[in-house]
Design brief:
Length: about 290
């Protein structure tokens, strides 16, 4: 596996944060992963971005190789982590890119830190307002968004199962590294997620309480949506309708907004369409 990243760590707000750095020159780009994911979700996208930018992929609190406190998974705390990271590394108005939940973190950062980012990119995330979904209740969201229990699996069993999911069509050493970066292996030889169930549900609660529709009017930097377009059938049809409605509403209030739909892809666009995604981010960032 050819992985040009340099693994580093930095102390922020009393915690140790791991990040992966790519590239040595150009404007800064900060990459944020989704819930229960890790910085290696960008393992195939970041090298393409590094051709034009200095790229920093951060393990957010509770994830990957960063510290895992029992609290602080609300958006105020996670955004404060990001702001401290930008300040500690002396990054001048980076483009902040977030995938899935990371898109929500990036949105909150851009909305609450005026001048903190030169651009905002939300990759299949950041725009759905969970509490505004039809017939939404916290009890329903709590049940539907709880993580699966994979703790009886060995790494080999996890990988065998993952190859039968959507990731199977794009399997590679890099995809395997991104997947395994979500877990550690116990002495008994079974896997445990870096993000504990308790901390995972704190993130879910924060997502339930967040109101993206109230944050979009507060964003002053240019924004780019990069959503995955799913087939308009079954449950996916309702999900796509909510995506389209949420993005259309955001376009009405964001002062400078672009939308680039990724067709024939899965939620994990950074792994499935790395070069296309990197090119889209590059074109957006170079146009700022």
């Amino acid at each position: 596996m050819n992985d040009p990243a340099v693994d580093k760590s930095v102390e922020l707000r009393g915690l140790s944060f791991h990040y992966r750095e790519y590239g040595r020159s150009g404007p800064p780009v900060v990459l944020l992963h989704g819930v229960a994911s890790n910085s290696r979700i960008w393992i195939t996208t970041a090298p393409h971005l590094a051709e034009n930018f200095r790229v920093f992929a951060l393990d957010q609190r509770g994830h990957g190789a960063s510290d895992k406190p029992d609290d602080g998974y609300d958006f105020e705390s996670v955004v404060a982590d990001l702001a401290a990271f930008v300040e500690a590394l002396q990054l001048d108005q980076p483009v902040v890119v977030g995938h899935s939940w990371g898109g929500n973190v990036a949105l909150q950062y851009a909305a609450t830190h005026a001048g903190g980012a030169s651009g905002l990119v939300m990759v299949d995330g950041g725009y759905i307002e969970i509490s505004s979904r039809p017939e939404a209740t916290w009890e329903r969201a709590e049940k539907e968004m709880a993580p699966p229990d994979l703790t009886r699996l060995t790494p080999e069993q996890l990988i065998e199962g993952a190859k039968k999911w959507q990731l199977g069509d794009i399997w590679s050493e890099e995809v395997e590294a991104a997947l395994m970066g979500n877990f550690y292996v116990t002495e008994a030889g079974t896997i445990r997620p870096h993000l504990s169930r308790q901390n995972h549900m704190q993130v879910v609660r924060a997502l339930w309480e967040q109101k993206p529709s109230e944050l979009f009017p507060r964003v002053r930097c240019p924004a780019l949506f990069a959503p995955a377009k799913s087939p308009d059938a079954g449950r996916a049809k309702d999900w796509m309708r909510m995506k389209r409605e949420a993005i259309a509403a955001a376009e009405q209030v964001l002062p400078n907004c672009q939308v680039c739909w990724f067709e024939d892809t899965i939620h994990d666009i950074p792994l499935h369409r790395p070069r296309d995604l990197a090119n889209t981010i590059r074109d957006f960032a170079q146009g700022l």
